Amino acid sequence: MSVLGMPGQTAFYGLELIGAPKTGETIYVSAGAGAVGSIVIQLAKTKGLKVIASAGSNEKVEVMKRMGADVAFNYKTDQVEDVLAKEGPIDIYWDHIGGSQLEAAIGACNLYARIIVCGAIPAFNNTPPHHIKNLAEILYKRLRVQGFMYWEAEVVIEGHSNNPVKFINALTPLVKNGKIHWAEQVFDGIESVSEAVVTALAGDSTGKVIVKVADP
């Protein structure tokens, strides 16, 4: 359900299909303490990238540092634009947020950078939309901006569905060797489902949110 499940597949296929990372490049990961973002950070490090990552609390900043982020910051206390201006430019942006963070990332992108649109957390919470003011830079910088669903990316990368051989072969050794770690936030009991869902959609979770219904 976590690193060798959907979150891991999302991170792996998104980076491979759209990110096309090259050693020495810089990636910015929003929601970097989440189930997917934390794995993106670690996969990017195995590929020789500089990783900038953000989240919404100091506790999550520490999680991202443990996952290997070179630069980890709290976007609620540090301006994304300022951090990217100092630590960028960036070649890849892993976008879970959209809105003002996407605008800041576009402004910090190198020519031919890739933006992987994986989520839109504020939209899930009915947050008023942020109107991005620098869309023209997508043209001027020749950026690639692409949304994806992991099950479609799986077919492209694997050549088929429901048998993720390349993913398993790539991730299993990294997990066994301790190069990929993961975090889980467990809620006990079926009665905690609503709390778990609210926590996940509000962006208050760290790692994969799991509801434990009963002991095996």
From TrEMBL:
SUPFAM superfamilies: NAD(P)-binding Rossmann-fold domains. InterPro entries: ADH-like_C, MDR_fam, NAD(P)-bd_dom_sf. One of its GO terms (molecular function) is oxidoreductase activity, acting on the CH-CH group of donors, NAD or NADP as acceptor. Residues 35-152 form the Alcohol dehydrogenase-like C-terminal domain. Pfam families: ADH_zinc_N (PF00107). Keywords: Oxidoreductase. It comes from the Eukaryota. Transmembrane segments: none annotated. This is Alcohol dehydrogenase-like C-terminal domain-containing protein.
